[in-house]
Amino acid sequence: MNSKELHYVVTIAEERSITNAANKLFVSQSTLSHSLAKLEERLGIPLFDRSTIPLKPTLAGELFVNTANKIFQLDRELQQQIQDVANFKHGSFTIGVTHLAERSYLPLVLPRFYKKYPGISIILKVAGLNQLETMLLKNMVDFAIIIPLDNPSIEYKPIFTMNVLIAMPLSHPLAKKHSQTGSNYPEIDLTELKNEDFILLPQGRKLRETILTACKAAGFSPKISLEVSNLDTAHALVAEGYGVTFIMDIITRNDPKKDKIAYFKIKNTRIQQTFCLGYLKKKYLPKAIDEFLYPQDIQV
């Protein structure tokens, strides 16, 4: 089998549709179907269950896709090592990032990166933490900017630490009670929020569990009125006058909603989360990745 066949099968598995995969690969549906049929004939086993919609890989198909991704990863690593020898004049790599990192972190480092490495192209894949962890383990990304999930197969290199703030509408009585003057955020006791409607991330998210633990230590269980998939949504809802939430202080950097939201530090409690560079252990990383490890101008 050749690299084209590997790409064909992996793309079909990702798209779960011959039609969608053909469009993505810029080939005709008949060409892709014929190529897949010939490959399956040579292997003597089907790679996809065609009785289901969308298409689902068979056990053999899953083995094929996983191995193909490993081959792609080895190929990328070989190219990266060669590119380092050639002073990294040309090349590309794939980065997985959270929505928060895409919005708040990448704008701080990418301009500097491209100034130093103008010939390098970056492919971004934006997803949630659990999805990014899966992408790392399946070699679908070269590395990811994530909050650690403590997976023993992944190496984590700290980049910078964010403080967690409380965010509420500026019209909220507590916002009026606590002055919002100066550059430093005023402090508020968590117990003052025990009757508030909270907007939190879904179960299984690390920040949510940390917040629940802090509330429990303060003597109450928060009233969760809404669960959202990302902090940007929570931030936008608070700006429109609904609920109380917890966000990273980096979100307040150049915040267009700052005239609608009051931000507070948590009194006598410091909740922090650290962005890390995550990659598979023993994985080769090119020198250019160092640009992502030392952000010089992250100030909130």
From TrEMBL:
<feature type="domain" description="HTH lysR-type">
    <location>
        <begin position="1"/>
        <end position="58"/>
    </location>
</feature>
<dbReference type="InterPro" id="IPR036388">
    <property type="entry name" value="WH-like_DNA-bd_sf"/>
</dbReference>
<dbReference type="InterPro" id="IPR000847">
    <property type="entry name" value="LysR_HTH_N"/>
</dbReference>
<dbReference type="Pfam" id="PF00126">
    <property type="entry name" value="HTH_1"/>
</dbReference>
<dbReference type="GO" id="GO:0032993">
    <property type="term" value="C:protein-DNA complex"/>
</dbReference>
<protein>
    <submittedName>
        <fullName>DNA-binding transcriptional regulator, LysR family</fullName>
    </submittedName>
</protein>
<keyword id="KW-0238">DNA-binding</keyword>
<dbReference type="Pfam" id="PF03466">
    <property type="entry name" value="LysR_substrate"/>
</dbReference>
<dbReference type="GO" id="GO:0003677">
    <property type="term" value="F:DNA binding"/>
</dbReference>
<comment type="similarity">
    <text>Belongs to the LysR transcriptional regulatory family.</text>
</comment>
<keyword id="KW-0805">Transcription regulation</keyword>
<dbReference type="InterPro" id="IPR036390">
    <property type="entry name" value="WH_DNA-bd_sf"/>
</dbReference>
<dbReference type="InterPro" id="IPR005119">
    <property type="entry name" value="LysR_subst-bd"/>
</dbReference>
<dbReference type="GO" id="GO:0003700">
    <property type="term" value="F:DNA-binding transcription factor activity"/>
</dbReference>
<keyword id="KW-0804">Transcription</keyword>
